[in-house]
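Q: I'm teaching a short session on how sequence maps to structure, and I want students to see two examples side by side rather than one. Could you give me a first protein with its sequence written out and its structure tokens following it? Keep the formatting plain so it prints cleanly on a handout.
A: Of course. Example one:
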Amino acid sequence: MTVPSSPPPPPPQTLVGERYLLAHEHVHLVHAMKRILAAHGADVVTADSVDAALRTLEAEQGRFSVLLSRAIFCDGTGTDLMRQVRARWPAIHGVVITGFGLPDEVKSFHAAGFAVHLLSPVTSDKLIASLEGLRRPPD
């Protein structure tokens, strides 16, 4: 006879109070990342292009803790997006998720304002740890 195991405990709510703008074109990745972030207590809004991300930022008056962005979109680059974000909403941290990891590429991401570079594929543990590291101290 098999005894049913209890479900695993929910993940710790380490991202409660944080708002994330997830800018990425791949629907399946967006759904997976949104689920992971929400399970840790985050409020996540998504955009599928540079233009959509900028419109969302404008509509929300830049009220996001972090921009999670891919490097290349059909309508621009994550680097251009981050530069515009830093110019208008300097308090927003940037995280780029990309397959580009050469030293010069990483330098260009940091120069654009990305605080964190994550090389894909990224594990949920690495993603959450990176975001926890960006948390602002309480006011």
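Q: Perfect. Now a second example for contrast.
A: Example two:
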Amino acid sequence: MIATKSTNTNWKPAPAGKWQAVCVDVRNEGYHPNPFNENRPQQKISIFFQLNAPRDEEGRLPLITRWFTLSMNEKAALSRFLCEWFECGFAALPEQFDLEQLVGMNARIRVIHEPKQDGSGDRAIIQSIESWEGPAMAPDNFERKPGQGDVPPEQRQQAFAPNPSQPLPPTNRMPQQSQSYQPPSTLAPVQPQRIEQRPASAPDPMAEYNNICQQLRERGLPVPPKPTRGADFPAWKTAALAALTTADADPFDDSDPFADQ
């Protein structure tokens, strides 16, 4: 296997902000070392989104990817991501989920930038996702490719769901079936459409308290006693967030081992 040095200096990360997006691919990235158990490698997948944002110099829509461990455990990052996208609880997700159904589905995602670990610049990451209720966009001039797991596209359904999957959760915010993937030649041009955001306001301590409590309960963690004074809230918040950070450092890691490559 030969690695070729890249000379592309025009690459830019996806723009930060809140954007309409369409899922254009789900790839099997194969098995990777497990930082928590060297004897149990983790199977990874990647989900690709095109953003309804200004095109680059070559006329392409911005693309962003997020990696996940292929796990539908209640505490796994993939199941939490799907629950946020479909705005449903974990119980509404099917026992076996055919990830191919995601291709063609729209979403509203928030993109932020953070420095790469090697200091070579910034990378774009998906901070949050939610359902999209406006006019849908279709994949635009995107060619699907096999992932590092070397699974051909026609075999991906078997790789992700060995048995027949159940239908998607019945919610009024999510289509029962994904939009069919259309060849690029039949797609209408996509006009950039950024979602305007309201000016940020000062954080509401009560809202923060309720949000942290909900996250603790979702992870099955004990909720510390509610602070009796407003001055005690910062210390309570620090302790609660530390517990969440510790709980998230589990085998259901969704980090991208190739984020800085």
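Q: What should students look for in example two?
A: Point them to this: Helices lie at 77-86, 156-160, 205-218, 233-248. Also worth mentioning: Residues 205-247 form one domain.
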